[in-house]
Amino acid sequence: MPFNKLTFKSGIVSDITPYSNEGGFVDCDKIRFRLGFPEKIGGWVKQSLNTFQGSARRIFNWVALDGSDLLGIGTHLKYYIEEGQVFNDITPIRSTTGAGDITFAASNGSTTITVTDPAHGANENDFVTFSGASSLGGNITATILNAEFQITSLISSNAYEITSSVAANSSDTGNGGSSVVGAYQINTGLDNTVGGTGWGAGQWSGTTSGALATQLAEALDASETAIDVDSATGITAGDLILIEEELITVGTISSNTLGTGGGPSTRGSSGTDASTHADNTLVRLATGNADSANDFVGWGNAASVTVSGAQIRLWSHDNFGEDLIINARDSGIFYWDKTNGFSTRAVELSTRAGTKTSVPTIAKQILVSDQDRHLIAFGCDGLGASASATQGDGIQDPLLIRFSSQENPIDFFPTTTNTAGDLRLGGGSEFVQAVETKEQILVYTNKTLHSMRFIGPPFTFGIKELSKNITIMSSYSAIAIDDSVYWMGVDTFYLYNGQTQQLPCSVKDKVFLDLNIEERDKVHVGANTEFGEVIWFYPSASSTEIDKYVIYNYIENVWYFGTLARQAWLDRGIRSLPLATGGQYLFNHETGFDDDGSAMTAFVESAPLALGQADRFGFVNSIIPDVSFSGSTSVNPTVDFTVKARTHNGSGFTQTDDSNTAQRSATTPVEAYTNKLDLRIRGRTFALRVESTSLGTKFKLGSPQVNVVQDGRR
């Protein structure tokens, strides 16, 4: 029998039935299509072994006047500027205490240090840097204390806990002295979305962050009814306290003992079990007469979210000349001055030197318009009370857009002599994203698309609605490439190229039926313009973090997908390779063909092929491969050819029921000089899978030829 040439269609089609896609591909991972044929994508390596803290959701690259190549990195914990593979922390400072406002307390044998600071305003996981502290007397020296710490636990609005690098000893009885100063960084953000109030919102088990709390002053056994605590302030008889999983009704209080004389405390209240508890165990006020607004909320009861918003921490950033302006979504706007160097942090925009007027104090996104050099704040607070007010009114309007005077990012109050002003979006209920193109700024709400253009004085900018009833997945799911803008909606993809249109997608069900919509804020888009690719990274239905991607290739007009955990992406430009974040590392992409020194698994699989009459069996006995290994770094690159056969045309390849429809397969390695594969496999239909699992292997699949002998009907 003559060999049959397999000519496959470009791209992945997974949204139609297998036979409808005969001659196409249905599945792949880490594969792209170029010139109509599938090939393995480029690999990646860590830029360095240096790490940053937190999940990096946004990165931004610019060049300073002295030629410095700078990369801004916004995580849910901090903001960094990377230069020369070094991550410089420029996270703004929220507040600085006066000398002596802070005291420390340590316990013998413990690395936990209790910090007292009235009305500290911090959240769990916030960062604070101490200075001016003296030794506590033992192991906890001044050198240990005068450093940056992350808050591990909130005790109350006046106290919290940090972890020392060494355990205290019995001599650590001091309080750090009267010169201690604490510098608190801006509150950290969420790493995962909180869906609102009710069960699961806030801290697990419903404990509010401000609940009054203290510690046991000594170990407590299961039978004791007199409970010694470090401080009984704010606790009264009859209150309910929580120690680990035990609830206790407080008896008569004398000094710092709960339950003395004729009024013992009642152990194991509300159906809990009395148990032993170690010294220094946390004691929380569950319900009581004191400070009831901060009482503990019981398990299963509704609890309000105590962090600022339920959305994960997201950043927007843009350079103003060589300086950097950053915005934590639904929070403040900050400015970093390059001339001050990396030893200085970003400061609140409204505190910059110069004449300030109505500077926004909260926004959803900022950008600097390239053509006209206005700083634009989207979803921000309104004008100040008067022309002399230095800040906005502090009341966020989710549809308000305000822009500074040209070339002046701190002058926002409109006058006859400047170009500052404001606009308000007329559709939707909330601003989502703004994307700057060559000629305009596209502005998305949750339901509408608008065009914002520079029109000059006296109005400066004009805005008009382009589309109604569109959707957008997240605050970073739209991207401009040349004169076109691509974005991901909540159930489809869109393109704007002068008019708004849905983008036909051959893998739509594959993506949207396997997407964790609760973590939609993590969806982000990037471009890989070298290959004409728009990449959306998203969390699959079984994951709370980014683990998959889908690509639209606008050169080939095809789609493909795969698995890859990347939290932020930046196309090549100033730097020669695309950059991405994963974990706490920065990766260079499209370099080599491996996964940071390990073998990368890449495959492509065809739809079923009927090589003859559909009601007859065929016998595949040989294949002439058509694979190129050009560019491989391995001296012996290989791929595996797997031929899958099935008995009945309507069955799946993995079906194993009693009707004898089981998958049959034969796998054979293919090297650079493999001329022919000899097989023995029989079925009515066949699929071909080509897979690479070896180091240094680059492969391109062409048009293999297969020899099939027609067989009988049984």
Gyration radius over CA: 31 Å
Main structural class: mainly beta
Mean pLDDT: 90
Kindly identify the CATH topology of the domain at 4-39 and 600-710: Jelly Rolls
Principal-axis shape: globular
Quick structural overview:
This protein is mainly β and 714 residues long. The protein is 1% helix and 38% strand.
Write the layout of secondary structure elements.
Layout (H helix, E strand, L loop, with lengths): L3 E2 L19 E5 L1 E4 L2 E4 L3 E3 L9 E8 L5 E7 L3 E5 L2 E4 L3 E4 L6 E4 L5 E5 L10 E5 L10 H4 L2 E3 L2 E4 L2 E5 L17 E5 L27 E3 L11 E2 L11 E4 L2 E4 L3 E2 L2 E2 L7 E4 L12 E6 L27 E6 L2 E6 L4 E4 L10 E2 L16 E4 L6 E4 L21 E4 L17 E4 L6 E6 L4 E5 L2 E9 L3 E9 L9 E4 L2 E5 L4 E4 L3 E3 L5 H5 L11 E5 L4 E6 L9 E6 L4 E6 L4 E3 L8 E4 L2 E5 L12 E5 L11 E7 L2 E2 L9 E9 L17 E8 L5 E7 L1 E8 L7 E2 L3 E6 L4
Antiparallel strand pairs: 1-57, 2-49, 3-4, 5-48, 6-7, 7-8, 8-9, 10-17, 11-12, 12-16, 13-14, 13-17, 15-16, 18-25, 19-23, 20-21, 20-25, 21-24, 22-23, 26-27, 27-28, 28-29, 30-31, 31-32, 32-33, 34-35, 35-36, 36-37, 38-39, 39-40, 40-41, 42-43, 43-44, 44-45, 46-47, 47-48, 49-55, 50-54, 50-57, 51-56, ...
Structural notes for this entry:
The chain is mainly beta and 714 residues long. Among the domains are: 4-39 and 600-710, Jelly Rolls; 94-185, Elongation Factor Tu (Ef-tu), domain 3 (Beta Barrel), CATH 2.40.30; 213-294; 474-591, Neuraminidase (6 Propeller). 1% of the residues lie in helices and 38% in strands. It has two helices and 57 strands. It has a five-stranded antiparallel β-sheet with strand order 2-49-55-52-53, with no helix packed on it. The protein is globular, with a radius of gyration of 31 Å. The two termini are 21 Å apart. The relative contact order is 0.13. Residues 197-209, 290-294, 297-309 and 654-662 have low confidence and may be disordered.
